[in-house]
Design brief:
The chain has 323 residues and is an alpha/beta fold. Helices cover 49% and strands 11% of the residues. It has helices at 16-30, 47-57, 72-82, 102-110, 128-145, 162-165, 178-184, 210-228, 232-267, 282-309; strands at 3-9, 34-40, 61-65, 87-90, 116-120, 158-161, 190-194.
């Protein structure tokens, strides 16, 4: 099979007939073998009933329905598990993504040999309250992930080699960072393609401003897990040792300074220098806290290392080819 089109949806009953017809038209014109995988994320507006009617007349439609709303990441992960096409295309169900982009994305994967191609909505039809935070969000993501050639990590329109989606797990709200997940899994040939963005035709957006806060927290989670999952001691241990040494050196300096002053006063009775006890100096307690925190971080790294070594996937690595 050439292409699997995975469409996560939530309350998009009005757009589904037009979307599936449009996808099928593009596939027929390009003579692709394909399947359309619709994942209903707990809709309550009749979307599932509409999918049932559409599937009766379109044998290429496959569908799954969640009992409740789990989120876009869960829907994508379920769709990825069911996808059988050599190239997997994801797109939103609100008709803001054009199926006409599918042939171009398909060629980027099959002919240009990309692992993943992400759409870039260079001209967006969204309010400033959405576009400005999105630009900031993408800039931070580029800096932290090291994927500097992508302008829009959260674009729903993407293309993947089948191997990519079978080797990553999308959970929480990680759908925003699928390119980052792919990179950490060893798929480094990631490209971008400018795609057309249409104004929303039906309904309203399902995402609020909280997505930016949650998205940033998910980015930190991906960065940490991707880099230190198999060696947590390198993270906790390094910070712990640095904190411990900083506190220890500070206490040694405080005590040494006091002893030097006492010795100086004993040898120079006519040139007395004032000094304070170590426990009367705020720096002493800051240094003591640094030692305690450093020791706790080191222990955290040690325990994490033990957990990691006993994990079932401790020696699970991404293998591309074997001869």
């Amino acid at each position: 099979m050439d292409i699997s089109v995975v469409v996560p949806l939530y309350n998009e009953v009005e757009s589904l007939p037009e979307l599936t017809t449009w996808i099928s038209k593009v596939m027929a014109e390009n003579r692709f073998t394909y399947e359309i995988i619709l994942v209903d994320d707990g809709s309550n507006d009749g979307s599932w009933e509409m999918i049932g009617k559409l599937a009766e007349n379109n044998p290429f439609i496959k569908a799954t329905r969640f009992r409740r709303n789990y989120g876009k990441s869960a829907a994508l992960n379920t769709g990825f598990a069911k996808a059988e096409g050599n190239v997997v295309i994801t797109m939103d169900a609100d008709l803001q993504d054009s199926p006409e982009e599918i042939p171009g994305l398909y060629r980027r994967i099959t002919e240009d040999k990309y692992d993943l191609v992400s759409g870039w909505k260079a001209k967006r039809h969204d309010p400033l309250s959405k576009t400005i935070p999105t630009k900031l969000f993408n800039k931070v993501t580029r800096g932290m992930s090291g994927i500097h050639n992508l302008h829009d990590f959260n674009c729903g329109l993407k293309a993947y080699r089948k191997t990519v989606i079978k080797n990553i797990e999308v959970y929480g709200e990680m759908h925003r960072y699928i390119p980052v997940l792919a990179k950490w899994a060893g798929f480094t040939k990631i490209g971008e393609q400018v795609v057309e963005h249409f104004p929303r035709k039906y309904g309203k957006t399902k995402f609020g401003m909280s997505r930016f806060i949650n998205g940033f927290l998910d980015l930190l989670s991906i960065f940490f897990v991707g880099k230190f999952a198999k060696r947590p001691m390198h993270f906790f241990g390094s910070i712990g040792v640095l904190s411990f040494l900083t506190g220890f050196v500070s206490i040694v300096w405080i005590i040494s300074d006091k002893l030097y002053t006492i010795s100086y006063n004993n040898t120079h009775p006519h040139a007395q220098q004032a000094y304070r006890d170590a426990t009367e100096q705020p720096l002493f307690y800051i240094a003591l806290a640094a030692i305690i925190i450093g020791f706790q971080l080191f222990l955290t790294g040690f325990v994490s290392e033990l957990v990691s070594r006993n994990g079932t996937d401790r020696n699970k690595y991404q293998i591309d080819e074997t001869i």
